[in-house]
């Protein structure tokens, strides 16, 4: 039985939802009026808005996927993500086969696994992954704001600009960085941080892998088949199906079979059809999450299609070119580019916001590869991917208001510590792999890049450690409470 | 800020995790139910919507009965009977 009290706050919530949506429409119109090139940025705003609404409605958080499995034995979110991945990979393969994809794979190496592990611990401590933290800010969650602002924005920007980690860098990376930087015409004054040496001396030497582009698959499967079989079937669909079966076997099967046997009057043995029914029951157990998984997968694919269309329409490969045409070349990197992934991404643009703030406070943030050479430091109101992150917050805000679920929750006590620490670990864990749970896992797996699974494995391992810690912590607190019984 | 787990009467408990965000409400809900006897009832008060979905599915899988769910002023009240 479910009851919801209807009061004046419901009306107030609806008014808030309309006001914010109206402001977003107004902002879009202003951009259009200023210059039609800004429609590129407006597309990011509304895809972000849609992601925010869907994430909030489906309680769609990648941290929850592995954390709730380990902490509560609940597969809801893990299933939702695998469903989203399935749909997204099929659309991604369709786009790749029609040359409409913006996807690019990342360097493959052990660094991806380690980064995922750090990120995984961070997301459990912070109470949400990179995208989850944004939608939770939209719900009024102050702990998520701490994690996103101080960890993902400021922490990440500091991480890419300091020399603090030079003691971890082997000499061969230093030597390789000099050679690689010279080969790419990168000025010495743009390569000053530990992260720069790691990037130029180690990451750039790692192989980049996309199954459809491997010799074996591209020769065996000419045409569109290499994208559907190589990238989608082999890299996403089969592993997702195997994972669903494993999750079912370990977390859902026992409970389902118990109920099934009871329904059958305890008679008879269970067959293959019962197992299939059990898997279907697990997939549909949380309809709002699974349905959102399907829609998120489709929308993420549509996002790629629209961004590619915009690039073709304006004759550019990066929004930095449009900024330069509009007279804002100072926003861009020395290559004339800004961070413009062409699809769903979270952490890099938040690092840009942190970098922009620190730069305004007098900390030179242009003297590194991340901002100075690759991503630029655009003003936040001209930063396309950052608008996507703002869109997620506003979209989640509107959905939370409409569902009467918005509530300001200031972080207090231990949550301040977990939020800050978790956010910092997420910031540090997203940079070495060049992405987070979205950019380094979700997008890469769907795009046929096996390094996505490496990052995902690290995230799951990190989540396991985080849950172990919280189990120990909460057990202590429960024991204290129960002393009074 | 502190969580509250109180014994309200014979076989009835209260778990108040308002102010807490993921994963704390679901972890405390699981631990509370583990410490109760079959047939005992716990009222859980929380204000983190994302945790409700997880708690509901956890109960469904394990066989606990979610007897009542209501939302008032941004707080969610769940009444769960341990199965």
Number of discrete helical segments of chain B: 2
Element pattern of chain A in H and E? EHHHHHHHHHHHHHHHHHHHH
The major pleated sheet of chain B works out as: 5 strands, mixed
Helices and strands of chain B, in order, run as: EEHEHEE
The protein's oligomeric status is heterodimer
Q: Indicate the percent of residues in helices of chain B.
A: 25-40%
Major beta-sheet overview of chain A: none
Q: Helix count of chain A, per DSSP?
A: 20
Q: Structural class, from helix and strand content of chain B?
A: alpha+beta
Q: Which overall shape of chain A is indicated by the principal axes computed on the Cα atoms?
A: globular
Instruction: Report the largest inter-chain contact.
Output: A-B, 58 and 42 residues
Give the strand line-up of the largest sheet of chain B.
1-2-3-5-4
Distance between the termini of chain A: 30 Å
Mean of pLDDT of chain B: 92
> Level of helix content of chain A?
55-70%
General description of the model:
The complex is a heterodimer of chains A (485) and B (83). Helix content of chain A is 70%, strand content 1%. Chain A contains 20 helices and one strand. The radius of gyration of chain A is 23 Å and the shape is globular. The mean pLDDT of chain A is 95. Chain B has a five-stranded mixed beta sheet, covered by helices on one side. The longest helix of chain B is centred in the C-terminal third of the chain and has 14 residues, at 49-62. Chain B is globular, with a radius of gyration of 11 Å. At the A-B interface, strand 1, helix 3, helix 11 and helix 20 of A face strand 1, helix 1, helix 2 and strand 4 of B. Strand 1 (2-4) of chain A pairs parallel with strand 4 of chain B, so a sheet runs across the interface.
């Amino acid at each position: 039985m479910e009851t919801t009290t209807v009061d004046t706050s419901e009306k107030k919530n609806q008014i808030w939802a309309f006001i914010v949506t109206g402001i977003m429409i107004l902002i879009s119109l202003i951009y259009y009026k200023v210059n039609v090139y800004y429609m590129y940025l407006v597309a990011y705003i509304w895809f972000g808005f849609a992601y925010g609404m869907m994430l909030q409605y489906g309680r769609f958080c990648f941290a929850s996927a592995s954390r709730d499995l380990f902490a509560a034995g609940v597969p809801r979110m893990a299933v939702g993500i695998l469903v989203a991945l399935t749909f997204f990979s099929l659309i991604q393969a369709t786009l790749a086969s029609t040359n409409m994809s913006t996807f690019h794979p990342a360097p493959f190496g052990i660094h991806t696994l380690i980064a995922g592990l750090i990120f995984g611990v961070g997301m459990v401590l912070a109470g949400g992954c990179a995208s989850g933290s944004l939608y939770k800010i939209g719900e009024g969650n102050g702990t998520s704001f701490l994690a996103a602002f101080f960890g993902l924005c400021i922490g990440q920007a500091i991480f890419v600009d300091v020399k603090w980690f030079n003691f971890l860098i082997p000499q061969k990376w230093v030597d390789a960085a000099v050679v690689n930087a010279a080969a790419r015409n990168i000025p010495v004054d743009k390569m000053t941080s530990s992260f720069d040496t790691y990037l130029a001396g180690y990451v750039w030497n790692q192989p980049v892998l996309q199954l459809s582009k491997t010799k074996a698959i591209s020769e065996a499967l000419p045409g569109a088949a290499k994208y559907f079989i190589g990238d989608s079937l082999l890299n996403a669909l089969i592993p997702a199906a195997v994972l669903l079966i494993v999750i079912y076997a370990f977390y859902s099967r026992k409970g389902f079979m118990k109920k099934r046997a009871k329904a059958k009057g305890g008679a008879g043995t269970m067959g293959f059809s019962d197992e299939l029914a059990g898997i279907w029951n697990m997939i549909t157990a949380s309809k709002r999450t699974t349905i959102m998984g399907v829609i998120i997968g489709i929308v993420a694919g549509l996002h790629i299609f629209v961004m590619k269309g915009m690039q073709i329409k304006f004759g550019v490969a990066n929004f930095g070119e449009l900024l330069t045409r509009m007279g804002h070349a100072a926003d861009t990197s020395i290559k004339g580019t800004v961070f413009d992934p062409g699809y769903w991404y979270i952490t890099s643009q938040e690092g840009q916001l942190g970098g922009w703030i620190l730069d305004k406070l007098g900390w030179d943030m242009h003297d590194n590869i991340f901002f100075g050479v690759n991503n630029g430091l655009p003003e936040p109101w001209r930063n396309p991917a950052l608008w996507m992150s703002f869109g997620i917050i506003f979209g989640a805000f509107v959905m939370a208001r409409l569902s009467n679920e918005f509530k300001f929750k200031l972080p207090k006590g231990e949550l301040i510590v977990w939020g800050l620490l978790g956010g910092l670990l997420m910031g540090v864990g997203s940079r070495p792999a060049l992405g987070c749970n979205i950019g380094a896992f979700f997008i890469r797996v769907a795009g046929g890049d096996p390094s996505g699974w490496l990052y995902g494995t690290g995230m799951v391992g990190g989540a396991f450690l985080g849950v172990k810690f919280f189990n120990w912590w909460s057990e202590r607190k429960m024991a204290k409470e129960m002393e009074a019984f | 800020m502190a969580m509250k787990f109180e014994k309200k009467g014979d076989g009835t408990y209260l778990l108040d995790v308002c102010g807490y965000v993921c994963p704390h409400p679901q972890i405390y809900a699981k631990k509370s139910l583990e410490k109760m006897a079959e047939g005992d009832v716990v009222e859980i008060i929380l204000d983190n919507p994302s945790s409700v979905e997880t708690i509901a599915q956890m109960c469904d899988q394990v066989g606990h009965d979610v007897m009542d769910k209501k939302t008032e002023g941004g707080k969610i009240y769940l009444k769960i009977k341990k199965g």
